[in-house]
TrEMBL record, chain A:
Belongs to the GerABKA family. This is Spore germination protein KA. GO terms for biological process: spore germination. Keywords: Membrane, Transmembrane, Transmembrane helix. It comes from the Bacteria. The chain crosses the membrane at residues 279-297, 318-340, 360-378, 385-406, 412-436, 443-466. InterPro entries: Spore_Ger (IPR004995), UPF0353/GerABKA_families (IPR050768). GO terms for cellular component: membrane. Pfam families: GerA. It comes from Paenibacillus prosopidis.
TrEMBL record, chain B:
GO terms for biological process: spore germination. The keyword Signal applies. Residues 225-390 form the Spore germination GerAC-like C-terminal domain. It is found in: Membrane. Belongs to the GerABKC lipoprotein family. Pfam families: Spore_GerAC, Spore_GerAC_N. Residues 1-19 form the signal peptide. This is Spore germination protein KC. It comes from Paenibacillus prosopidis. It comes from the Bacteria.
Length: 532, 404
């Protein structure tokens, strides 16, 4: 597999990395010069004189010729007017009195005039540009060899809404947005602890995407944090547009059907993960936050498990495991049993299945493949098509391909039931990306079932099990705590014990500081005698 | 990695190359629901297969009522397998025996011996040892031709007939292949198989038209019991003679005992007792050099019917009734024992009991158990408990006819 992979990569290995346009390079290290006009010209040429690139030149109250530079759509014009231009133009008497040296004027402007929150000194062209693209306004003056960047960023963005991919009946309804600072805020709102540490990176030479790593210092495994940062720093690409990019760059193994990193749109589930010692990787521009390291069983927990009563949560969790298994092996099981092991079917059922198959021209495997592919096509169509024609697809799908196919004698009714049940089961699993792996494996297992029967399915499942046992997610065995068996962690795998029982954090992730709560928190009727 | 890739390729290609081995689509299977074994005059096997016609069970899309639910055909061969092989000349589908629930043998086959039949039956990997074996006094293949009104599939109908014997009916003779094998392989025990009989006009019942009538021209019913010595047929027990067998072999589940409620003098006034649980213990003994078998029966059940004027509220009445029931059960048991003595066939498991109790002496007896068995004297003790008397206390004859 790697050999194949290298076919695509080898060609480019000789070309020097850092595939940035060569023209940008010399300027990057350059410092601002002292002359206002020169600086402005240089910035203008660097940005190709883009039309949204605004330069406003004026004379400060102290007589110094100044300029502010900003990008129109990224900034809040009201703030620029009120907090930058206005104070500078109307500068007080005290300021004008001290118009002696240039450094003084810089200090005065920065410390006494500007009424914006955060300001910064920049002296490199490079920083200048990135400040602009972050929505800052840069203030230049004749004779300064550095500039002030004032944060004035504001742009239109989606508000905090209910996440579309993981909705709950009970529990918080807010979801991450495309804005990383909103997302960090959502997490900080939940974990008000100085131990919630945040490490920033900018990844993507062209996109300069903000990536933040959040973890609970003292609980999360420091070596894993270090490893995450190491892998993030290795990334040297031009663009990061979604956390999916990061995921593929930092995951442990590429050639596996199973994801080794979870993504979540829910701040509550990410906060819970951080509290258990896992690490969150936030990427600007996407509401999907990466959570790692994980185990296979994390894919079957929904955040609602912890908000509903423990008994129903346990039931639902077991249901999800069953549904996952069904969505993976039901079609292959049907193929195997009806074509190899007819003796396993109860007589009456066998007769009725045989009756349905009368006149079906295709072998069971082909029949199943036909229906499965039809369903995959329908599903893909349903996801991509414009919302307005959604009902058309469902009519075509349900009526034409379901009933009509049976009545036309193309497929048997039992096969339609099998495929439909498989499809529904695949939606039970709360995490979309593990459902995808079941979706792909289904076809491989169907092929095995068609050629070797139940023996084929079993060998396929064994192969999968061996593969899964070998998988790691940032050093954590994928099948832990089942293999290796960690009894301490079992209380939140197949069953979800009541909250007062969860005394420790899962030891897999929280290597240190794993005591979560006091031991004897079981609710009991209070001893009224004593109170009296 | 390269090696892994090649390995994957080999495995993948061999999957296709295997040609899907012994795979059979459902619509290529001829599902056999019952098999019948006959022997012709030249001792050639005649095998008759009852194949389910799946189309006929298809509910709405036509087929349904217009087709016979099964087809029956026979093949002939010097051995059983030869006959099975010849079926391929006649049937477009591969015969599939795993769902065959019923094996019917003719009396001629039973007299010929079951050894060859059982050998081929358990040697095959498709056939099931849970199938029921029944004897037909005439030609076995005729039984498979009879259509049954309630079950679509006559084979299933027959097997339900036998498994339904446990509840409510009096005799339950175990007749699955594995039980048969189990009994035959014991040196002393004799197997017993129920007889299946066609009652009525068998010719007319083979057509679907017969099912359109409310009263079918012919029905399949269980009747006598065929007793074997080793693998060979020894003789018949009538239905009445067979009543005692399940009592002794401790196989009573739910059975009705009909008994006269006021002693011998008023035979016309009969009552019914429904046995719910029953336990039988066999106690072999030797007294004065003779074999003595004590059969200890304890039955519990309900009074379900009575034609006598009884004051059931009184415990004495119940005690009296219990005594009558005990008499009746004793009579049934004795009756069966006498009949089996005549056949010199131990279908009661006495041999086993003596074997366990007297392992040393058994070596001597076992050589000639057929002659030892009739010499056994049997002592039956029955204890009956009437647990409930149904929804009313006093018998209805008492309630209605105050004066007589």
């Amino acid at each position: 597999m790697n050999k194949l992979f290298q076919l695509f990569v080898r060609k480019y290995q000789e070309i020097p990395q850092q595939g940035e346009p060569a023209s940008d390079k010399p300027e990057q290290a350059e410092l601002l010069s002292c002359c206002l006009q020169e600086n402005i010209d240089r910035i203008k040429s660097l940005t190709g004189n883009s039309s949204d690139f605004i330069v406003r030149m004026f004379q400060g109250a102290n007589g110094l010729s100044m300029a502010i530079v900003y990008i129109n759509d990224l900034t809040d014009t009201a703030v620029i007017n009120d907090s930058i231009i206005k104070p500078i133009l109307s500068g007080t008497e005290a300021d004008t009195a001290e118009q002696g040296s240039l450094t003084d004027s810089f200090k005065v402007t920065n410390d006494m005039l500007l009424t914006v929150g955060a300001t910064n000194t920049v002296n490199k062209i490079n920083d200048f540009v990135s400040a602009l693209y972050n929505g800052n306004t840069v203030i230049l003056a004749e004779g300064w060899d550095h500039a002030i960047s004032a944060s004035t960023s504001k742009w239109q963005m989606r508000g905090v809404e209910e996440p579309s991919s993981q909705s709950v009946v009970r529990g918080p309804k807010d979801g991450f947005t495309e804005n990383i600072s909103t997302n960090v805020a959502l997490l900080r709102r939940r974990i008000k602890s100085p131990n919630l540490w945040k490490i920033d990176r900018k990844i993507g030479l062209v996109t300069q995407t903000d990536v933040s790593v959040l973890y609970l210092k003292g609980t999360a495994d420091d070596s894993v944090v270090k490893e995450v940062l190491k892998r993030l720093d290795r990334i040297d690409t031009d663009s990061i547009l979604d956390s999916g990019y990061i995921e593929e760059f930092i995951q442990d193994q590429t050639f596996t059907p199973f994801p080794t990193i979870i993504n979540s749109e829910r701040p509550d589930s990410v906060a819970a993960a951080i509290l258990e010692g896992q690490i969150a990787v936030l990427v600007d521009g996407t509401p999907f936050v990466l959570v790692l390291p994980i185990t296979f069983f994390k894919f079957f927990t929904a955040s609602e498990d912890y908000y509903q009563r423990f008994d129903i949560s346990t039931f639902l969790r077991i249901l999800r495991f069953c549904a996952f298994t069904i969505s993976m092996i039901l079609p292959s099981l049907y193929i195997a049993i009806t074509t190899f092991h007819q003796e396993m079917i109860p007589s009456t059922l066998l007769v009725s299945l045989a009756a349905q198959r009368e006149g079906i021209p295709f072998p069971a495997f082909f029949e199943a493949l036909l229906m499965e592919i039809t369903f995959e096509v329908l599903r893909e169509a349903g996801v991509r098509m414009p919302r307005a024609i959604g009902s058309a697809i469902s009519i075509v799908g349900a009526l034409v391909l379901g009933q009509a196919a049976v009545e036309a004698g193309l497929v048997s009714a039992a096969m339609v039931i099998v495929v439909a049940f498989t499809a529904i089961s695949s939606f039970v699993v709360p995490m979309f990306n593990i459902a995808i792996s079941a979706r792909l494996l289904r076809f491989a297992l169907m092929l095995l079932a068609a050629s070797l029967g139940l023996f084929g399915i079993m060998s396929g499942l064994f192969f999968l099990l061996i593969h899964m046992a070998a998988l790691r997610s940032f050093g954590i065995p994928y099948l832990a705590p089942i293999a290796p068996f960690v009894p301490n962690n079992m209380k939140d795998i197949f069953v979800r014990v009541p909250w007062w029982m969860m005394v420790t954090r899962p030891r897999l992730f929280a290597k240190q500081n794993y005591i979560r709560q006091k031991v004897n928190l079981r609710p009991e009727p209070s001893d009224t005698e004593e109170e009296k | 990695m390269k090696r892994g890739l090649i390995l994957l390729l080999i495995i993948g290609l061999s999957l296709f190359a295997s040609g899907c081995g012994n795979q059979t689509e459902l619509n290529r299977l001829g599902i056999v629901s019952a098999t019948a074994f006959d022997l012709d005059e030249t001792n050639q096997w005649i095998l008759t297969f009852q194949l389910i016609k799946p189309q006929s069970t298809q509910g709405k899309s036509g087929g349904g009522g217009s087709q016979s639910p099964v087809i029956v055909f026979s093949t002939k061969g010097k051995t059983i397998l030869e006959a099975v092989q010849k079926s391929k000349l006649e049937s477009s589908r591969r015969l599939f025996f795993s769902h065959s629930r019923v094996v019917i043998i003719s009396q001629r086959v039973a007299e010929f011996g079951l050894n060859q039949l059982l050998d081929s039956y358990i040697r095959d990997n498709q056939t099931r040892e849970t199938a029921n074996v029944l004897i037909a006094s005439g030609e076995a293949k005729k039984v498979l031709e009879i259509l049954t009104p309630l079950e679509n599939n006559p084979g299933i109908s027959i097997s339900n007939l036998i498994s339904g014997q446990g509840d409510g009916q009096s005799t339950f003779i175990p007749s699955t292949v594995h039980e048969l094998i189990f009994t035959i392989t014991q040196p002393s025990a004799s197997a017993a198989l129920p007889e299946i009989k066609i009652a009525g006009d068998e010719k007319r019942q083979t057509s679907l038209d017969a099912l359109k009538e409310t009263r079918n021209p012919a029905v399949l019913k269980l009747d006598r019991v065929g007793v074997f010595k080793q693998d060979k047929f020894a003789g018949w027990l009538t239905r009445n003679e067979s009543l005692g067998i399940p009592w002794i072999t401790n196989r009573i589940k739910n059975t009705t005992v009909v008994f006269p409620c006021e002693g011998e003098n008023r035979k016309d006034q009969l009552s019914s007792f429904l046995v719910e649980t029953s336990r039988t213990k066999l106690k072999p003994a030797i007294s004065d050099g003779k074999l003595l078998m004590t059969v200890d029966i304890h039955a519990k059940g309900n009074l379900t019917e009575t034609a006598c004027k009884l004051d059931i509220k009184k415990p004495e009445t119940l005690n009296k009734l219990e005594k009558h029931i005990q008499e009746q059960i004793k009579k049934d048991v004795e009756h069966s024992f006498q009949a089996l003595k005549k056949l010199k066939a131990d279908a009661l498991g006495f041999g086993n009991a003596f074997h366990k109790a007297y392992p040393q002496a058994w070596k001597k007896w076992s050589k000639n158990w057929g002659n030892e068995f009739p010499k056994i004297s049997m002592n039956v003790t029955v204890k009956v408990t009437i647990q409930r008397t149904g929804m009313i206390n006093d018998s209805f004859p008492k309630i209605s006819g105050k004066t007589e």
